């Protein structure tokens, strides 16, 4: 509990006369105490013997919740709390809508997903969608003013290709029947069959879009609309909502302005062929082009314009959930906007590693991508196979499995996706969390009583309580570090603790006091897991 750690840190600071922060307060093995403070650092600052200092301090420290303090090893202060006072403190915090977390303020933009026009979302979007969505949920929970944005890749030299291919091979009928299938087929066909002439003609269509040619714009809009519609269904399936959908096209004009301004201010340089670039000679990055010799802007120029736009909209923090392949892009981008003096907005690239499927575990049906929808289908079908109990929620279980697998690994690490592990009901998986949550709810249903804190807490009960009490600070850590894995892993450990508790402590049909007290813990477990799952975007089920 942060408040308790805080309190201990304050008491220690006052009494020792050194700065003690909450990060200095540790959680020792349960047999040693509830919290601990190593006095060694303070002792060396004060030039004293740590063991002696710890012994002196132990004699002097006093606070309402502390029952006893003992000194161990070279200079550890181990605190034992008054269990009931601590429990009351925890349950009181849990009554609060944010489980006692202090509210944050700040206007935050979370950009994620950002798929491209006329292409279905693929495996690369799976982790992105899971991460971005969980992040927006966590930050909202902390009370930040969050806007989530889907920034579609809908501008640039490639988009003439679909138009060209559509006019050459496409049909209105097929498009209307299954727009994404058709667009993607055309894309793959162009990719496989195009010769130089085709490529040149496709490029002309891109130019026509930029110039506002009627037919080009009409088709571009039709494809854009169809892409967004198609993706909406996949987001709905994943339980993901955006506050707004924008795209590179929205800032295309501004990107041209930025080029002029950058040249004027000497931030950009013009090359002999008329293209414009940024010189990073004094920095560790390669130079980057912001305008081509044919006058068209690039991906990065639109991003510069977009940062200006978001700054003008009043965002304090601007987050990009984008894979680590684009690390360099964002480093260059942020360096450029610094040179423009856009310092009122704090930009963050929320980078993450690859999701690999085990080789041979899935083959793509068309083109050479594995589609997002294929992965969701497979998870659902697998969940149906594994689940002997209830197959009606295979979709939710499959989805829970995917989300947990993507969120429980820290962002910077790659993920090796193993279908059996991902759907293992016995531990460290989405279904395990969902199942333990359902099991706890069914205990509550079985009893006619309500939980309340009566009688003293036994060791096994107290262990569960202590684990429960860590929830708010895990949420805070996850939010601050943009790392949903903190919550995912915490929940997994909590479920394990709960299962141990339930195995060892009979809840229903014991004496009334014990039943009520244990029910109180089960209730708190349900609250924490309901909320925790919600922050991961995983559905808490009623039955399983
Ligand atoms: N559409 C891009 C892609 O698929 C990702 C866009 C990321 N966001 C950004 N503001 N650059 O690679």
């Amino acid at each position: 509990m942060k408040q308790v750690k805080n309190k201990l840190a304050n008491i220690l600071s006052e009494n020792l006369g050194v700065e003690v922060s909450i990060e200095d307060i540790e959680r020792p093995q349960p047999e040693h105490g509830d919290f601990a403070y190593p006095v060694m650092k303070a002792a060396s600052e004060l030039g004293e013997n740590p063991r002696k200092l710890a012994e002196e301090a132990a004699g002097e420290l006093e606070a309402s919740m502390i029952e006893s303090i003992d000194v161990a090893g070279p200079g550890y202060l181990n605190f034992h709390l008054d269990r009931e006072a601590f429990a009351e403190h925890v349950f009181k915090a849990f009554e609060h809508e944010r489980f006692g977390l202090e509210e944050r303020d700040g206007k935050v933009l979370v950009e994620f997903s950002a798929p491209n026009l006329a292409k279905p979302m693929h495996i690369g979007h799976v982790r992105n969608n899971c991460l971005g969505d969980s992040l927006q949920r966590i930050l909202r929970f902390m009370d930040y003013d969050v806007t989530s944005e889907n920034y579609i890749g809908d501008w640039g030299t490639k988009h003439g290709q679909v138009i060209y291919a559509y006019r050459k091979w496409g049909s209105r009928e097929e498009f209307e029947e299954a727009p994404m299938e058709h667009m993607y087929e055309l894309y793959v066909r162009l990719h496989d069959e195009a010769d130089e002439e085709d490529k040149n003609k496709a490029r002309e269509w891109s130019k026509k879009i930029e110039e506002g040619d009627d037919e080009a714009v009409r088709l571009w809009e039709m494809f854009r609309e169809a892409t967004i519609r198609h993706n909406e269904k996949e987001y709905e399936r994943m339980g993901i909502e955006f506050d707004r959908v924008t795209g590179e096209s929205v800032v295309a004009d501004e990107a041209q302005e930025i080029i002029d301004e950058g040249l004027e201010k000497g931030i950009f340089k013009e090359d002999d062929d008329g293209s414009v670039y940024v010189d990073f000679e004094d920095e560790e990055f390669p130079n980057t082009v912001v305008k081509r010799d044919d006058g068209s802007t690039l991906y990065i120029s639109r991003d510069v314009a977009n940062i200006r736009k978001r700054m003008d909209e009043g965002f304090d923090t601007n987050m990009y959930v984008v894979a680590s392949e684009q690390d360099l892009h964002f480093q260059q981008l942020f360096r450029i906007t610094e040179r423009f003096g856009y310092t009122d907005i704090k930009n963050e690239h929320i980078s993450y590693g690859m999701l690999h499927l085990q080789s041979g575990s899935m083959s793509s049906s068309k083109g050479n991508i594995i589609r997002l929808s294929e992965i969701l289908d497979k998870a659902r079908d697998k969940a149906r196979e594994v689940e002997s109990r209830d197959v009606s929620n295979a979709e939710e279980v499959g989805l829970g499995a995917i989300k947990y697998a993507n969120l429980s690994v820290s962002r910077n690490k790659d993920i090796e996706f193993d279908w059996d592990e991902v759907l293992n009901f016995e531990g460290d998986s989405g279904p395990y969390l969902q199942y333990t949550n359902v099991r706890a709810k069914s205990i509550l249903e079985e009893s006619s009583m309500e939980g309340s804190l009566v009688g003293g807490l036994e060791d096994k009960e107290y262990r569960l309580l202590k684990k429960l009490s860590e929830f708010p600070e895990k949420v805070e850590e996850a939010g601050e570090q943009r790392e949903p894995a903190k919550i995912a892993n915490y929940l997994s450990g909590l479920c394990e603790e709960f299962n141990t508790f339930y195995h060892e402590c009979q809840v229903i049909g014991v004496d009334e006091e014990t039943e009520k007290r244990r029910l109180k813990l089960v209730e708190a477990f349900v609250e924490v897991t309901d909320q925790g799952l919600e922050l991961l975007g995983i559905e808490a089920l009623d039955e399983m």
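The chain has a mean pLDDT of 93. The longest strand covers residues 145-152.
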